[in-house]
């Protein structure tokens, strides 16, 4: 999954206004038992208020209009202020005795403390100057601004235009940060950047009204806006796109081709960078929420690869093939498994999504109210990115979640992948989990910022396996697709650690993925680029999924006939995304209660 929501999880902590900063640093008396919860709740409220202040577009996406028309500060100085402010919040949390809190607040305390500590630690590494990957960039994130902004009133459109006009500022700040990455030896590896400039130039159109930035003005006019006002807004938007946004993109393209690309890194592993080994160890802890080492994860990956290969051999035999390799070759090359048009691929994906919807009540007691839609991945990024991803919606401003499907390179997007892919990105995977999190009764910072990757992506991969119980893998081809996707995530454990800890080349990583998975060549190339440019993120999926499976088996073994699959899933999802140790505590408590 592309973390379209991962940008929220990585939102930089920012500085408070002067008055709020004073609140964050004012000494608090030594806490008493009845004061601990009060201190925690004050810190949570002030933290969330300051996050909204420093992240105006996030504020708009959750229905807070106080910062309309404003944008975040993307400078290095701001990053340092954010880290310092995180440290100030941590000092206040140190005054809280967790054992004096109720169960809910102990979880709130643990999550906020973890987020703040990771913010401080991350800012100490030179790699915090790396502000784009093969998967995400400041220009593409900005081009997606309209997807999670309100457009109900003239003020909403006014805010959007004002933000468009500030893209040159965002661009200049981001380039300055990337220049520091160049100076420090933290550039992205050359092998991941082939065609990267196309993600910039693809946003520039001859007619500004045909650009992605103009999309909100192609929607039906809201009844609250007069026709004359709407036409005036449209004209102004086109002018801002033409005279502010496009020139900034040209500037970025020229900077990239002349300054950045020539300085790209020759070695694909982050460990070759200054402080890279320590940074990778941090990324492992951050992404997996465990204390596993790179060697332990590498060996776990090899073990999982061997197990899944044996299962693939059985499926191939059941399909009438002499070997796994022969069946995979058939799946990769038979044209009947591939769409002829983007519309055909989208239709197949939509059909699978709707079929999955109908199976959910048997597996979940609580389902989200927010629906989701399906769209093609934007053309300028599609060829270099993954097969699909999910973009969260917003109940507060009436935006549905979106299941994005890659409709480029149709000969690389087989139908037999669609059941597993849809289960992961839409339901019962990311949409179900994230939309539920958005409506839980818990602090707003957890709803909007707490997207622990091991939990979120672990749930996505676990959801693929739920497809067995849903009956969606009803042919050997689809079952091999499921196993190929599970193998893909097992290979990630081997390849990510291989590249960043063991000196693997991109070619070795691609060969390992090709040998063990059924993924197409285009997908493998895009995925390996992603692992190179985004160290550690790929480790979360399998580790999170294995933990959820472990906890389910524990519950089944201890509860026997009293095990309730709907209850189990509701407990797993019932506190939103959490670190894996907190998930284990919650499930163990549920088991004890059920067995009571």
Characteristics:
26 helices; 596 residues; disordered N terminus
**Quaternary structure classification:** single chain
Low-confidence stretches: 1-31
C-alpha Rg (nearest Å): 24 Å
Topology as a string of helices (H) and strands (E): HHHHHHHHHHHHHHHEHEEHHHHHHHHHH
Strand order of the largest sheet: 1-3-2
As a percent range, the share of strand residues is under 5%
Specify the biggest β-sheet.
3 strands, mixed
The number of E-state strands comes to 3
Mean pLDDT reading = 93
Note the total helix count. 26
Question: Helices and strands: which structural class?
Answer: mainly alpha
- The percent range for helix content is 55-70%
Shape: globular
Distance between the termini: 39 Å
Outline of this structure?
By secondary structure, the chain is mostly helical.
């Amino acid at each position: 999954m592309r973390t379209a929501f991962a940008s929220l999880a990585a939102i930089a902590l920012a500085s408070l206004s002067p008055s709020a900063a004073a609140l964050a640093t004012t000494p608090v008396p030594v806490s008493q038992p009845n004061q601990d919860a009060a201190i925690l709740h004050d810190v949570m409220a002030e933290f969330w208020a300051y996050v909204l202040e420093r992240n105006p577009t996030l504020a708009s996406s959750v229905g807070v209009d106080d910062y309309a028309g404003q944008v975040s500060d993307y400078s290095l100085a701001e990053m340092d202020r954010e880290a310092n402010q995180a440290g100030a919040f941590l000092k206040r949390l140190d005054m809280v005795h967790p054992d004096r809190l109720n169960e809910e607040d102990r979880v709130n305390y643990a999550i906020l403390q973890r987020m703040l500590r990771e913010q401080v630690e991350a800012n100490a590494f030179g790699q915090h100057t790396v502000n784009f990957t093969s998967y995400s960039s400041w220009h593409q994130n900005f081009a997606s601004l309209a997807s999670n902004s309100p457009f109900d009133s003239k003020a909403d459109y006014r805010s959007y235009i004002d933000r468009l006009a500030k893209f040159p500022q965002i661009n200049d700040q981001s380039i300055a940060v990337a220049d520091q990455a160049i100076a420090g030896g933290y550039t992205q590896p050359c092998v991941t950047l082939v065609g990267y400039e196309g993600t910039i130039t693809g946003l520039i159109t001859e007619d500004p009204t045909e650009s992605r930035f103009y999309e909100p003005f192609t929607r039906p006019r809201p009844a609250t806006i007069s026709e004359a006002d709407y036409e005036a807004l449209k004209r102004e938007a086109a002018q801002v796109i033409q005279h502010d946004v496009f020139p900034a993109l040209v500037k970025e393209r020229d900077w990239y081709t002349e300054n950045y690309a020539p300085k790209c890194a020759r070695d694909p592993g982050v460990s070759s960078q200054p402080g890279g080994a320590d940074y990778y160890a941090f990324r492992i802890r951050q992404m997996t929420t465990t204390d596993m080492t790179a060697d332990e994860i590498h060996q776990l990956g090899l073990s999982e690869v061997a197990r899944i290969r044996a299962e693939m051999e059985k499926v191939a035999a059941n399909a009438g093939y002499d070997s796994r390799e022969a069946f995979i070759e058939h799946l990769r090359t038979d044209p009947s498994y591939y769409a002829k048009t983007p519309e055909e691929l989208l239709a197949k994906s939509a059909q699978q999504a709707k079929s999955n919807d109908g199976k959910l009540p048997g597996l979940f007691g609580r389902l989200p109210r927010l629906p989701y839609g399906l769209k093609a991945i934007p053309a300028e990024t599609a060829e270099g990115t993954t097969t699909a991803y999910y973009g969260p919606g917003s109940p507060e401003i009436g935006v549905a979640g979106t299941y994005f499907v890659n409709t480029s390179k149709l000969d690389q997007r087989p139908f037999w992948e669609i059941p597993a892919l849809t289960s992961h990105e839409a339901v019962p995977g990311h949409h179900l989990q994230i939309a539920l999190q958005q409506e839980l009764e818990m602090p707003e910072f957890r709803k909007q910022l707490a997207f622990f990757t091991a939990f979120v992506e672990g749930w996505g991969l676990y959801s693929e396996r739920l497809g067995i119980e849903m009956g969606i893998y009803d042919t050997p081809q689809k079952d091999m697709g499921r196993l190929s996707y599970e193998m893909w995530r097992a290979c990630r454990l081997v390849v990510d650690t291989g590249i960043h800890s063991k000196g693997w080349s991109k070619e070795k990583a691609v060969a390992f993925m090709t040998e063990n998975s059924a993924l197409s060549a285009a997908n493998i190339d895009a995925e390996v680029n992603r692992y190179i440019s985004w160290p550690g993120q790929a480790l979360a999926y399998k580790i999170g999924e294995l933990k959820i499976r472990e906890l389910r088996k524990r519950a089944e073994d201890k509860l026997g006939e009293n095990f309730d699959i709907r209850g189990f899933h509701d407990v797993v999802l019932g506190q939103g995304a959490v670190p894996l140790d907190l998930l284990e505590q919650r499930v163990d408590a549920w088991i004890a209660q059920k067995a009571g």
